[in-house]
Design goal:
By secondary structure, the protein is mainly beta. Helix content is 0%, strand content 51%. Strands 2, 4, 5, 6, 9, 10 and 11 form a seven-stranded mixed beta sheet that branches. The chain is globular.
Length: 119
Amino acid sequence: QVQLLESGGGLVQAGGSLRLTCAASGRTDAMAWFRQAAGMQREFVAGIRRSGSVRYYRDSVKGRFTISRDNAKNTVYLQMNSLKPEDTAVYSCAADPRTLGWEGDYNYWGQGTQVTVSS
């Protein structure tokens, strides 16, 4: 059983930056970030293979967010730049997808960290 712990969320003004961190308690395969805004469904944000050679982003964050990982530390990061109010959500990391594709279910989920972007 792998546990995931997110950190780095907070309140930031529009145009600002935050860096989220997800620390895993053990080895993981592909990892991803999801977000869920109040009253909305959870949505995929970014994913990265274990090798780091393949990364995938939802269109609305391309060019602004960067996902990366450090396998030696069992950690994945999400660097978020040029933040917008519509990026406000609880951001959760996930590890080891159960099915093909990035946007399905994963074996492990973190509790999430709140990101609030003020206008």
